[in-house]
Task: inverse folding
């Protein structure tokens, strides 16, 4: 059981932050006095920073909407669900958390920000659901999708028959890779 998480392999930057009215000026002042950097949700930031790349890919302006079933809405009607992949402790796989049947039929495309590849993979949602192998996360009653960190189908520790291999092959075959 993890009792304390510490941010590693990152840096401190200045960003404008939207703060709910539930957070008082006094709370902000007290936090700033600590001199510590605030950890933020990497998935939420990923949704924001990939938007210009997706706009170029779709050749259309879009916005972050955080709607039920998709994160980006483009002027041409495309609804894109976005996931930042988490690199696992084993360093072999990258996982998209909480992406299962709950998104099916709600988005047109799904994008994956793969930090180990410094790329975004964009796939048609219908194609994704036709070929994906979902791994049920019993702890939070959702599904996770795993890919290889190096996006190679062969190598040390890689089995010929596995969900991770199937999903990696699906992205390599059907998705568009956008280099960052």
Result:
């Amino acid at each position: 059981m993890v009792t304390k998480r510490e941010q590693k392999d990152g840096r401190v930057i200045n960003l404008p932050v939207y703060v709910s009215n539930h957070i008082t000026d006094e709370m902000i002042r007290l936090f700033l006095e600590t001199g510590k950097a605030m950890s933020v949700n990497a998935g939420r930031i990923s949704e924001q920073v990939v938007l210009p790349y997706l706009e170029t890919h779709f050749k259309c302006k879009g916005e972050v909407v955080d709607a039920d079933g998709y994160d980006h809405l483009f002027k041409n009607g495309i609804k894109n669900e976005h996931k930042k992949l988490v690199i696992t402790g084993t360093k072999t796989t990258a996982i998209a958390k909480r992406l299962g049947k709950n998104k099916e039929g709600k988005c047109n495309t799904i994008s994956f920000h793969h930090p180990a590849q410094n790329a975004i993979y964009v796939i048609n949602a219908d194609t994704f659901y036709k070929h994906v192998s979902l791994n049920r996360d019993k702890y939070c009653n959702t599904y996770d999708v795993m890919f290889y960190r190096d996006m190679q189908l062969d190598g040390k520790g890689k089995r010929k028959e596995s969900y991770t291999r199937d999903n990696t092959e699906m992205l390599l075959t059907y998705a568009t890779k956008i280099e960052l």
In short: DSSP finds five helices and ten strands in the chain. The longest strand covers residues 142-148. Residues 163-174 form the longest helix (12 residues).
